[in-house]
Amino acid sequence: MKKIGLLLPKSTYYSTIGFDIFEGLKSNLKNIGIDQLKIITENIGFGADKQQCYRAAEKLILDEDVELVIAYIGHRAAELLRPLFLATNKILIVLDAGANMPQEWSVCPNIIYHSLHNSLGAYLSSQLAIKKGYKTGGMVTGYYDGGYLQTYSISKSFEDAGGKICFNHATGYKDDDFTMEPLIEHIKSHPDSALLSLFSGDYVQWYFEKTKNLFGETNLPIFLTPFGLEETMLKNAVCPSTNIHGIAAWSKEIKNTENNSFIEHIESVGKKPNLFSLLGWESAVIIQKVLTLLEINNNNITKVISDLDSFEFKSPRGLITFHSKYNHTIAPLYEALVVPDESGNSTLKINAIIENTANYFDDLYNQELNEATSAWYNSYACI
Length: 383
Hints:
This protein is of the alpha/beta class. The protein has helices spanning 17-31, 50-63, 75-88, 118-131, 150-160, 182-189, 202-215, 231-234, 257-268, 275-296, 301-307, 357-365; strands at residues 2-8, 37-43, 68-72, 91-96, 111-115, 136-141, 164-170, 194-198, 222-224, 244-248, 312-315, 318-323, 328-330, 334-340, 346-353. The model has no long low-confidence stretch (mean pLDDT 94).
């Protein structure tokens, strides 16, 4: 029986993250008819310990002799694993939140990236704010979420489109340090400013609760990125405004056969579908394709990657294609609106699919970073 390796993260506020990725992968492998494949897992904590990530990957390759490895890690951690996978002629499939913009996109023939495009969503969220008529804006981020280069993505995009960033507010990462009080003066000084917001997990709930308490029915214009619109967190967040927009990577409201199947399978095992089980689910299709190509090409990885150039598949979020320039899959993104449900909590409404996502992807990674940098190695949403 063939074996594949899976490096699983942990997170304090997405407590089921590793189980969700595993369940999504396992469920879709079964769904597409692959039952003669053993999944061997290794824990990598928050993805910040470089040696732990390397040792875990090395163990899967050398001790377990896996065909390939799947890992929920960021680009920085993936780069550290590059020599190992080159030396052993193995493929690493990186499941990535897409929260960073790498200073140097170093394409490795042995690494494939499959992303939730949070930084790209931030880039498009700013453009959505401009499209809706906002010329001034303020950056509002959590301490943790603001540590990634998605902050550069959201602000640079706003400025390039003709907007002006007038204020910045970064919160703490503990309840005692999490305050929106500075927004009172910011908004008084710069009325009609869009709040370009970067939050994930239960920080979204804190953000919404505190803005609701401070501003009541003011209807603040809030713009969010894909992780800010993650539905399992949104449903427990009070809806503070009827002017909340953003870019979503996925929603239960997307109407297609693949999404119906994904939701049905995950719920049938007592789980709630989310962005992480989605990543695992989609990775099963990529694994199937890569294993087939490895066999056809007699483990010649250069040929495998070349053959992926025309690879595409239908997923719960739409048609996913392969961008050979970066060894990166490109998935659809959606314009979305947050609306209150019957109890006053938040729910997601999908407005429209964004066309030509690949072109925006090119635009994003052609940006000059101008010495912007991030020191975070953690897998995004893993603290």
